[in-house]
Amino acid sequence: MASLLISASSLLAAPDGGPSRVLSPGHLRIEDGVIAEVGEGRPAGEPGVDLDGGLLAPGLVDLQVNGFFGYDMMDAGEDGWHTVVRRLPETGVTAFLPTFITAPVEAQAAALRRTRDLLPGLPAGGSRVLGVHLEGPFLTERRKGAHNAAWLTDPTPEAVATLLETGLVRLVTLAPERDGALEAVRTLTAAGVLVSVGHSDATAAQVAAAADAGARKVTHIFNAQSGIDHRAPGVAAQALADDRLSPGLILDLHHVSAPVARLVFRAAAGRVVLVTDAASAAGMPPGDYELGGQPIRMPEAGPPLRADGTLAGSGLRLDEAIANAVGIGVDPVTAVDAATRVPADLIGRPDLGRIAPGAAADLVWLGPDHRAHATWIAGENVFGGDHE
Q: Which residue positions are annotated as catalytic (predicted)?
C-alpha cells in the first residue's frame, strides 16, 4: 500500500520531534512505508483506517529476545526464524534483537554466521531484526544466573574480534570486572556496538568505569547483579544513579516486584527500557523447552525455570510489560516510551519507536487492556485490523 490515512481516537506521537504526547483524536498519513504527516484532530480526508478506543502507538522494540513460540534464537533453523519474525507482531513487537546467551566463543560465532545467511530469506512483513544481542560469554561466575559457568570467559581482543566478524552484533552484555573488560567496552563501542553491564558482581565504581569507557545500558536490573547496599553499592545502584545508563527491566512482576519496579521508573526517569528476556517457552503452554541449549521448564504460572529453580528468561510479551507498568501506576506515555522510543534511540535507530514525520510506519494499536489488537510494519497491516 503506497498511501494510507489512519485516524485514531488516541494517538501517541512526537509530531514536532519533542516529547511523546497523546493526541485525542489524532491522525497520520503514510507514504511508501514512512510516516509523512502527523496531526491533531480528525483528518480532512476520509481515513482508510479509523480506530476507536485504545491507543495507537509506535511499534514496540524489544532488545532482548532469547526465543519465542517454541524456538531458541541461537539454535533455530529457517522454520523457527520465520515463525518468530512472522508472529512477534501479535505481541506488538515490530523490531527486536534476537539474543544469544553464553556459549563457547566459536559456537556463538557459528550461530552468528548461520543467522547472517538466514536473514535475507526472512518473510516480508515480519518484525525487523536489528542485529544480535550477545548476552555472554563475558560474564562473572558469581552472577551467572541460568548461564553455563563452564563457558564463561574473559573478553580477550581475539574473542571480541571473532564475534564482531559478521557485523551482526549490535549489543553485548558483559561483566566489567572481568580481565580485559574495559578495553573490550572501548573496542565494542568504537565498532558501533551498544555495551550493557550484566550478570556482574561489579561495584558501582567499576560500573562507572565501564560507562566512562562507553557502556550505556544495564541488563535486566536487579537480576543476576550486585544490588543496592548503602555502603557498598553495586550494579543496580549505579544503573539508577548514572544518567548515562539505561536500565533494562523485565516487568513480569516475578523478576522484579512492583514496588521496586516503581522505584526504577522514578529513579531512572526517561531511561528505563522494558524488555521481555523471552525464552523459547514464551507464547507456549507449560512444558519442557530449551534456553541456550540447556533444558528449562515452563510452569503453569510464572517464568520458565532451570531444574535447580533458577529463573531462565521469561514468558513475557512486551505489550504485557506495558500493561503491567500501567497497572503499577506508571504513566501510560512513560510506559509506552520505555518499549519504543527509549530502546530505539539507545540502539541507534531514531527512525523507529516514534510516530513522527520521517519515521518508519511501524505501529501498534493497543486496546484498553494495553495488548496489541493490530500491528503495522512499514505501513502494511500484518496483524489484526483488516489483516487477512
A: 277 (proton donor/acceptor)
Among 381, 339, 358, 265, which Cα is nearest to 58's? 339
- Count how many Cα atoms sit within 13 Å of the Cα of residue 197 in the half-sphere of its side chain: 40
pLDDT digits (tens, 9 = 90+) for 287-327: 999 898 889 999 999 999 998 999 999 999 999 999 999 99
Question: 60-346 adopts what CATH topology?
Answer: TIM Barrel (3.20.20)
**Residues 277, 319, 337, 362: which is the catalytic one?**
277
Q: What is the model's pTM?
A: 0.97
d(CA 127, CA 155): 31
The region, left, alpha or beta by phi > 0 then psi within -120 to 50, assigned to residue 387 is: beta
What are the binding residues for Zn(2+)? 135, 199, 220
Give yes or no: 229 in active site.
no
Q: 3-57+353-384: what fold?
A: Urease, subunit C; domain 1 (2.30.40)
Which residues contribute to the annotated binding site for substrate?
Answer: 146, 223-224, 231, 255, 311-313
pLDDT in tens, 241-284: 999 999 999 999 999 999 999 999 999 999 999 999 999 999 99
